[in-house]
Amino acid sequence: MEGKKAREEGENSGVTERWIKRHLVLYIGATRHPFILSIRDGSIDLSSFKRWLEQDYIFVRQFTPFVASVLIKASKKSDDENDMEVVLGGLASLDEEIDWFKSEASKWDVPLSNIAVHKTNQKYCRFLESLMLPEVEYAVAITAYWAIEAVYQQSFAHCLEDGNRTSLELENTCRRWGNEAFAEYCRSLQTIVNRCLEKAPEDVIAKAEVTFLSVLEHEVEFWNMSHGGT
C-alpha cells in the first residue's frame, strides 16, 4: 500500500517537482552552495560578497531583457492570459532591483562602472540570450525564468531560517530574495511551468528539462565564481 501511495503521489506531483527529486544532488548544489552556507554561518569573506554584488548587477541587467522576451512569448503563446500578468509583475520589479544593487554597491564601496565581466558571467548571459530567440518555445523560456528565480529564493531563504548566524549587514540581501512574498511569486511561476509542461509534447518537455539543468549548472558556477573568484 505504501508503494502504491508513493507512486500515486509521484503521479499527482507536477513535472518540476519530479525534476527536483530526479536531480536532487544538483539542485542542492545550487541552493545550498558553500557561498550561501558561508553567509548563513557568518563566515563569508566580504570580498566574495562584493564580487558577487558587482557580477550579479551585470547579470540582472542582462536578465531584464530576457524576462521581457518571456513576456512577449507569454502574450503570443500562453493559453492563460494571467501568465502575462505574472511575468509582467516580475519584469516591473527588476527596475527596483537594479536600483537596489546600485544602493548596495554604494554602501559597500563597490564601483559599478567599467566592471570586468567574469567569463562565468559572460557564459551565463550568453545562455540567456540563446533563450530569447523566437524559435525557443514558451514552455522552455518560462522554465528557465522560474528556475533562476527559485534558486535565489531557496538559497537566500536558507540564510534566514532557524539556526542562522547571518550577519546583520547581510540580512538585507537575504531578505530581498528570501522573503515569503518572493517565495509566493516563485510558486506562481512554478504553477505556470507545470501547466505548460503538462500539455507540451515530449520533445519540448525534454528541452525544458535540459534547460532546467543548465540553469542549475550555471548557478553553481556563478556561486563558485563569487566564492573563489576563479
Automatic annotation (TrEMBL):
Keywords from the UniProt entry: Disulfide bond, Hydrolase, Thiamine biosynthesis
The cellular component terms of Gene Ontology attached to this UniProt record, alphabetical and capped at eight, are:
cytosol
Asked if the record carries the keyword Phosphoprotein, the reply is no
Q: In which pathway does it act?
A: Cofactor biosynthesis; thiamine diphosphate biosynthesis
List the GO molecular function terms: thiaminase activity
Task: Return any one Pfam family short name.
Answer: TENA_THI-4
Q: Which reaction does it catalyse?
A: N-formyl-4-amino-5-aminomethyl-2-methylpyrimidine + H2O = 4-amino-5-aminomethyl-2-methylpyrimidine + formate; 4-amino-5-aminomethyl-2-methylpyrimidine + H2O = 4-amino-5-hydroxymethyl-2-methylpyrimidine + NH4(+)
| Domain Thiaminase-2/PQQC stretches | 29-226
Sorted alphabetically, the Gene Ontology BP terms of this entry are: thiamine biosynthetic process
Q: What is its EC class?
A: hydrolase
Source domain of life? Eukaryota
| Active-site positions on this chain | 219
Residues the record lists as binding substrate: 56, 97, 149
The catalytic activity of this protein is classed by the Enzyme Commission as 3.5.99.2
Q: Per the similarity annotation, which family is this?
A: Belongs to the thiaminase-2 family.
Record-linked PANTHER family: BIFUNCTIONAL TENA-E PROTEIN (PTHR43198:SF5), BIFUNCTIONAL TH2 PROTEIN (PTHR43198)
Q: What is this protein called?
A: aminopyrimidine aminohydrolase
In its UniProt entry, the species of origin is given as Ricinus communis (Castor bean)
Q: What is the lineage of its organism?
A: Eukaryota, Viridiplantae, Streptophyta, Embryophyta, Tracheophyta
